[in-house]
Amino acid sequence: MSSVSPIQIPSRLPLLLTHEGVLLPGSTMRTSVDSARNLQLVRSRLLKGTSLQSTILGVIPNTPDPASDAQDLPPLHRIGTAALAVQVVGSNWPKPHYTLLITGLCRFQIVQVLKEKPYPVAEVEQLDRLEEFPNASKTREELGELSEQFYKYAVQILDAVSLEERFKMTIPLLVRQIEGLKLLQKTRKHKQDDDKRVIAIRPIRRITHIPGTLEDEDEDEDHDDIVMLEKKIRTSSMPEQAHKVCVKEIKRLKKMPQSMPEYALTRNYLELMVELPWNKSTTDRLDIRAARILLDNDHYAMEKLKKRVLEYLAVRQLKNNLKGPILCFVGPPGVGKTSVGRSVAKTLGREFHRIALGGVCDQSDIRGHRRTYVGSMPGRIINGLKTVGVNNPVFLLDEVDKLGKSLQGDPAAALLEVLDPEQNHNFTDHYLNVAFDLSQVLFIATANTTATIPPALLDRMEIIQVPGYTQEEKIEIAHRHLIPKQLEQHGLTPQQIQIPQVTTLDIITRYTREAGVRSLDRKFGAICRAVAVKVAEGPHKEAKLDRSNVAEGEGCKEHILEDAKSESVSDTTDLGLPPEMPILIDFHALKDILGPPMYEMEVSERLSQPGVAIGLAWTPLGGEIMFVEASRMDGEGQLTLTGQLGDVMKESAHLAISWLRSNAKKYHLTNASGSFDLLDNTDIHLHFPAGAVTKDGPSAGVTIVTCLASLFSGRLVRSDVAMTGEITLRGLVLPVGGIKDKVLAAHRAGLKRVIIPQRNEKDLEEIPGNVRQDLSFVTAGCLDEVLNAAFDGGFTVKTRPGLLNSKL
Prior knowledge:
The structure is a single chain. By secondary structure, this protein is α/β, with parallel strands linked by helices. Among the domains are: 12-126, Archaeosine Trna-guanine Transglycosylase, Chain: A, domain 4, CATH 2.30.130; 216-275, no CATH class; 288-465, Rossmann fold, CATH 3.40.50.300; 602-790, Ribosomal Protein S5, domain 2 (2-Layer Sandwich). It contains 26 helices and 25 strands. A 5-stranded mixed beta barrel has the order 1-3-4-5-6. Strands 8-9-12-7-13 form a 5-stranded parallel β-sheet, with helices on both faces. A 4-stranded mixed β-sheet has the order 16-17-19-18. Strand 21 and strand 22 form a beta hairpin. The model is unreliable at 1-5, 143-152, 195-216, 540-579 and 797-808 (pLDDT under 50). Keywords: Acetylation, ATP-binding, Hydrolase, Nucleotide-binding, Peroxisome, Protease, Serine protease.
């Protein structure tokens, strides 16, 4: 028997009331201090004390919540543990509190409480004279090897004063726990020999665990999952390099305790590796005729885009191992770029997955996070492959022009490897850390403009322009796709509502002004909702919506037409009306449902005085017409520009005024005082309406010259003319971009003549035939030709022979 090791404690101890557990002699615990009494004890005794005895406290288990600041001291347990405060840590969040690390020394019994405030102090009697007994020491050490928690009857053991009583209570508990744990180990050894090392290091259960309980079943399930995972790795068709990595990781997983954070990370990694479609793919449908019919049924117009898809199918039919092309559809919103990507996947018989890139500013979204980071996960490319389950899907990278950049990297740079056919067969995600073949994936990117796409990324993609629709194309799209879709979504049938093509044209020209058809689709939705209300109210004898006898501001009213000569029923009155007729949507019904027209033709009104001209602009939303206004007043020869103009457009304005000043005598342009010096005692103000919209670019040069020429000559610019083109100081007209979108904008606005640079004549071939028939095109190589075409009767005495005025 070893020698006795007495521990002597002070006869008066400050009492720390804790409800977080029972501290036994020889054990260590952390406890939170946040009640007023305990906080005062720590501040007065521990933080200010200097002697060793000032760090000895009396720890009393307390059933009531010690955080309550009751005035009276709660009933105290008579037996406590003297403890040594080893560490004190303070914090102010979410409220002031301390965390104590305390070690139990021996037990004591409260003789009497000496004081209660500011913290309780009691006279105590020491109960323990600790002495090591071989049997107890051996039992405790053996249990410590197998279990981390063995305090089930902590309070009862604390209250056992005599040594004999304590041994009688604790040793049977310890022996029973040891036998149970040995039996558990023996059972697991027989179950599977190769799992010995895993069992030896697994966390031991609480003393209350009995073999065969739910916890035991959970471990069995985890073990079975690991065995199943190992089987999947052996039978998978992943490349050799990936297989080696998985075998190495599964071995690490077997040796790893489940409580380690890396256990779940490694298991998730292995599950992803076996779920990836390393060699699983779909078979392409390569019937060119069927593909053409399917594309034509799903999408009207878009001939260039559909032609490129059919070309890919044809080459794929001749060469099976063709690498997937990298296509980029560029066009305004609402023209069907995303839906075309879905149709391409449907045509090929492939899986489709959309990845939204708008606003992405972290390169880890593309390439994944390294597994050393907490919460790491694969990038969107690998995650998308896991979702579709095949290695040759159609990936739509939506809004690639709206990628951001931040301190976390440049996602556009990370896409360089993904979208390079010469590199993406060996794409390495940071999370996987092994190569994956992306060469069979058909990538389709969409963008509104190429201006914001980095040049290196743009170079890797095949750009296919998807321009806006003409009015005729919108009418066809509306009656083929939009109206049937809205009728289905609102539970209506063609027998309940009719929208004639003339009504559709009114909606397109008076209620929308866009390159795509999204606003048009919303207008049809509003009409269907209004009709759904009328249908839900009950049967009707006649269903034409009219504003007859309807007061201003009232909602949509149903008007029963009884006139036998009515336009909609003139041929059927003698035969008798059917009990129900479809609701006919005409212009009056549009006004009731959609309100007054949003876009009235105001071109002729705005060009009713000198100093106004119409230009054509390109925006990511499509082409737009743009008015330019000029005025002059007495001043000091200053040029004022307003309308949120960029630097390039400001320079175009200065070029225009300089060219006009140098050619003032030729065109007989004078200021208010009759001088050919146009800025002599004269200020000029140029304004571009829609001042809240930023404008820039060189294509407004010819419009500014025409506007100023009109101002100084006093002549009106033709109200049916729009123009675009860059100018030089010598009066040349240079080519610009976006001709098709600009021409379509002029056509939507009802204009009849369009002036474009001569070197843009080749772009007219992309204009639909019906639009070319409605418009007259003037191709100009110099400003003389522009002015001659912009004014009735020409602008100079002698028209230059180079003028080409063609009706195409």
